[in-house]
Design a protein that fits this description.
7 strands, single chain, seven-stranded antiparallel sheet, 19% helix, 151 residues, 3 helices, 30% strand, disordered N terminus
């Protein structure tokens, strides 16, 4: 059984303890936590399982990687890629920075709570672990060094 801090031990000013998910190290969780959620789009997104989606209109294009566990699906999305060379909307496959996000079912998981999800088991835990493993393999941008958030 996992010991949880009592109310006097966690005053809301500290971050929750990291519990490694299957296949994700504490170092990777710390890297995810220190990222602002921007990532460098992989060089060959399709080879990594991402599909490029551009619905047109005012909606920004995005890359989508589907996740599944039992009857529930989820995804890792890389939304609104911005080209590194021009800071314009990126063309498919261009070197870019995008905002990463995770959904499970119809629920969007907030970035700042992603690495601290308290899921005991089952398909939700499996999907969270899959998402964290994928994020740990991406080139995450540290909050302090982000060319988008730092401006």
């Amino acid at each position: 059984m996992v010991s949880r801090p009592g109310p006097d031990e966690n005053d809301g000013m500290t971050e929750p303890a990291l519990t490694p998910a299957a296949g994700v190290s504490v170092d990777d969780l710390l890297r995810i936590r220190s990222s602002c959620s921007h990532v460098r789009v992989p060089d060959q997104p399709a080879m990594r399982g991402y599909r490029y989606v551009d619905v047109g209109g005012d909606s920004a294009p995005f890359y989508l990687r589907r996740l599944s566990a039992g009857p529930i699906t989820g995804s890792v999305t890389l939304t609104a890629p911005i080209e590194l060379s021009s800071a314009e909307e990126a063309e498919r496959g261009a070197p870019a920075i995008a905002r990463a996000g995770v959904t499970i079912g119809v629920n969007t998981i907030a970035w700042d709570s992603l690495s601290a999800q308290d899921v005991c088991g089952g398909v939700w835990a499996d999907l969270i672990a899959q998402a964290l493993r994928e994020l740990s393999q991406l080139d995450l941008v540290d909050s302090a060094e982000c060319p988008i958030c730092a401006e």
